[in-house]
Design a protein that fits this description.
Distance between the termini: 9 Å
Helix content: 25-40%
CATH class of the largest domain: Alpha Beta
Strand order of the largest sheet: 7-6-15-16-17-14-18
Strand content: 15-25%
CATH topology of the largest domain: Polyamine Oxidase, Chain A, domain 2
Largest sheet: 7 strands, mixed
Number of strands: 19
Number of helices: 15
Structural class: alpha/beta
Length: 487
């Protein structure tokens, strides 16, 4: 049966949902509040510099290729990418620099040459991350936890047999600290908690599944930068007949007798057979369905961290930096305590610098580099952000200067800032949280909203704030789950 489907929001999950549903023969229209598609996966241009505005790391590109293949197209004609040889450059406060090679043996050699770590410990951690992926990915990343059949499926029983080894009852830091001898390598592996906006001192050790995605399956750079993902999927959706309405925020989801019947935008009521919301789940309920009894327990779960990003056009090239760079805090635990317990920014934050002009020279003038400079910060709870941003900028510049041995402040030619308030206003993310609910407790995977509404028939949800979670692979997976429910 063919349905007329309205999709609210054109983030990567909204685009992927539109593509999958159009391929299935449905008539799809997408309503986007902004003037452009992509949500967080957009771009910023400042003079001669171009920046990816949001997500900067691509893993599991096969999930994108799959969308083109389902449409009967060759993905390589529309979307290309290359695997990174160096996943990240890590800089520690004591002056140690580790190049995280994609090749495991080169990575291990780099670690043992620069730290006191034993090679067998690194191999053990990589093997454990692979074990987690092999036993949990199908269950938690690509299946619906709303469907009882999931828990009696083959992947479920495969996981049950290894339950004692999967880290459900230990924190990420607890597992890593017991694996490694050198605290710097513990810190390096703890960093992966930030990939879903959580603290390694609270999130369960099952989240050690994340390193496998990057360190073993690979990190990639798409030609044209991350924004090319949005452009490629948007163009594919249009070729499939999807209709887009930009600058058209949805004001209400229309519900009659427990069924989604349409939406209201610009004061007009539009009829649809089914609706998919790619808006943050909290705002989907509170703004679009204020009269519906909401699942308060899920919506009130603690939210993930947010980000403070400085888009800097830097008028010099720094050969010691690569595409992805991390300048670690001296006290990682205190940094996360400031974010999640105190709701403020630590004076010595870990700094992430993404420089796409390393791989896409047109992103910066010949003499410079485009620095996407980010720190993890608390979500928006009404803090004095002007004061916090001013202090953070000073501390970030001091840290970079100490690491590189050169004051970069005079080299900054252009600047734009994105903080939790603007993340919230531009993307409708509750409190400016990047990943919806945090994963700072044992049951986090079960405390995300399902992709199909139990309260309203014909209503579905996709994106980083619902199951299976935040990040590009998870958002694409949420679209796949929505499409399965339509069958």
């Amino acid at each position: 049966m063919s349905y007329k489907v309205g999709i609210i929001g054109s983030g990567v999950a909204g685009l992927a949902s539109a593509i999958r549903l159009a391929i299935a023969g449905h008539r799809v229209e997408v309503f986007e509040a902004n003037a452009y598609p992509g949500g967080k996966l957009s771009e910023i241009k400042l003079g001669a510099y171009r920046f990816d505005a949001g997500p900067s790391l691509l893993t599991l590109p096969s999930l994108i290729d799959e969308l083109f293949e389902l449409a009967g197209e060759n993905p390589a004609q529309y979307f290309t990418y290359q695997k990174l040889e160096i996943n990240c450059e890590y800089f520690f406060p004591d002056g140690v620099n580790i190049s995280a090679h994609a090749d495991h043996e080169k990575l291990i050699e780099e670690i043992i040459q620069n730290t006191a770590e034993r090679p067998e410990n690194v191999r053990k951690a990589l093997a454990k991350s692979q074990l987690l992926y092999e036993h949990l990915s199908e269950l938690f990343m690509f299946s619906s936890l709303q469907d009882p059949k999931t828990f009696v499926s083959r992947p479920a029983f495969k996981a049950y047999r290894k339950l004692h080894r999967l880290g459900f009852f230990q924190t990420m830091n607890g597992a890593n600290a017991s694996t490694f001898d050198d605290p710097r390598i513990t810190q390096m592996f703890n960093r992966y908690a930030t990939y879903n906006g959580s603290s390694p001192y609270k999130t369960p050790a099952t989240m050690n599944i994340i390193p496998h995605l990057e360190m073993s399956l690979g990190a990639y750079f798409p030609a044209g930068g991350m924004h090319s993902i949005t452009l490629a999927l948007y163009d594919l959706a249009k070729r499939l007949g999807v209709i887009f309405h930009f600058n058209q925020p949805v004001e209400r989801i229309l519900i009659e007798k427990g069924h989604a019947k349409g939406l209201m935008t610009g004061g007009l009521s539009l009829d649809f057979d089914r609706l998919v919301s790619n808006m943050d789940i909290v705002n989907s309920y509170r703004k679009l369905m204020p009269d519906l009894k909401a699942p308060r327990f899920l919506l009130n779960q603690p939210k993930s961290s947010s980000a403070l990003i400085f888009y800097w056009g830097v008028g010099k090239k720094f050969p010691q930096l690569d595409l992805h760079n991390i300048l670690f805090s001296r006290d990682y635990k205190a940094e996360f305590e400031h974010i999640f317990q105190r709701g403020v920014i630590f004076h010595d934050p870990t700094v992430y610098i993404n420089i796409t002009s390393r791989y896409e020279p047109s992103d910066a003038p010949e003499h410079g580099e485009n620095w996407f400079t980010m720190i993890n910060v608390p979500n928006n709870q009404g803090q004095n952000w002007e004061e916090l941003i001013t202090e953070a900028r000073k501390n970030i510049l001091n840290k970079i200067t100490a690491t590189l041995g050169e004051d970069i402040a005079p080299l900054i030619e252009v600047e734009e800032i994105l903080d939790p308030r603007t993340i919230e206003s531009k993307t409708s993310s509750a409190l400016g949280a990047l990943y919806g609910n945090s994963s700072n407790n044992l049951f986090a995977a079960f405390l995300r909203h399902a992709n199909k509404s139990r309260r309203v028939k014909g209503l579905y949800f996709c994106g980083g704030s619902v199951h299976p979670g935040g990040g590009i692979p998870m958002s694409l997976s949420s679209a796949k789950l929505v499409a399965k429910y339509f069958r």
